[in-house]
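Hello Y.,

Per our agreement to keep a running log of every chain we model this quarter, I'm adding this entry. I've kept the format consistent with earlier entries: sequence first, then predicted structure.
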Amino acid sequence: MLARKEWSRLGILLIVTILCVGLLGTVVSAEKVKLKYTYWGSPLEKKAQEDMLKDFMKAYPNIEVQPIYIPSDYVTKITAMVAAGDPPDVGQLAEAQCLPWAEEGALLDLTPFMEKDPEVSFESRLPMTWYFYEGGKKTLGTNLAAEVIVLWYNKDIFDQTNVAYPPAKAGEWSWDEFLETAIALTKDRNGRHPGEAGFDPSNIETYGIGFGTGAGILLPSVWGNGGDWFNDEGTKTLINEPESVEALQKMNDLIYKYHVAPTPTQMQTFPAYNVLLQTKKVAMVIDGQWALLDLAQSRFNLGVAPLPTLKEPVCLELGSPNVIFADTKYPQEAWLLYKWSTTASSVMPLIKAGLWMPLQTEYYTDPEKMNEWLTEGIHPPEYKEAVIDYVLEYGRRTPAYYLRNWDEIYRAIREGMANFWLGKEDAQTATDTVAETIAPLLQGRYDR
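Predicted structure for the entry above:
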């Protein structure tokens, strides 16, 4: 029989053990927890994500994470894993799939975790990076990283042509000024510019501007002209209304009327934007912030600016989310991994290299935090004003964050606008057809 003093010591040890388990939850489980983490990306992203997971396992030695890199057919393979009853615990997911899956219960609502964890709040991350559903009552989380659409340019071409750089402050560059700049930077093989006698549009040596025809490229101009593709409720099409039609036609005119931009067909045969800028085939391009990863390594005098303004500045923000899958056996550990993988300090190499932007608001408002990721030789000197201030003041989410049937709707828009981008139809004709096609597909928003 144990003495009273020995019983007292055992009691104290028991109380301490209970308190520790209560405070740390399953994290201090005697058995090692195993999680699966799925992701895609470039070789650089692959390495950075693997390094991030290694650091996570050092911080939480009782959690073992199996990285599953899926560089192609990601949605198909993730769908097969879920159907086979072997889903990931945490992972990336495409924008078009995440909200339907969340609503079906395949993903976890993160609001209960956030209520218990003060490190993550709606205020702590950029407001336009959250995905909401069930009328805005639930969230599957945020992007893996923030991204925006901006204008990149080769300063050497501007210098050689004696053309002023685009203003770094949003709203200070009108569409007409942008067009004048694009014309001045465009020249054929004889050095003539559009509008000059003898200009040869079939033999252009340098184009003033290059751009794609995806939603992320087009919507800032549409929104900035006071238009939209749908009403705010997501129930009525507006793509063929005057403001939207005018903006789309202006983009199209850059190609076929003013000859300052390559056609979509030409763009398919051209090399990547960083090569086009470096070789001076184009002077400016409209592309995502992520392009900085390659642009910064191309070793030319790189500049960045907000997009030109029609009626008001708009900064389009986009990005696919990291999510927690509902069938995880370890939701608390999965939450720790989710939080770690979407925290800027955990993936700082990718941010400093120019591929990603932070999610946490403090990295945009606190000068000390800003200096942690803005990198000399990577981020151009005007980056803070041209990108950070731009997204803070004018950031707006793509419809992928809230619109039902977005994947099907967007596919119909791309197909319906094909002849327009081939120069065979005007904007009104093309959008009238598109409006009729997508009208029955509009079924509202996930967040309302």
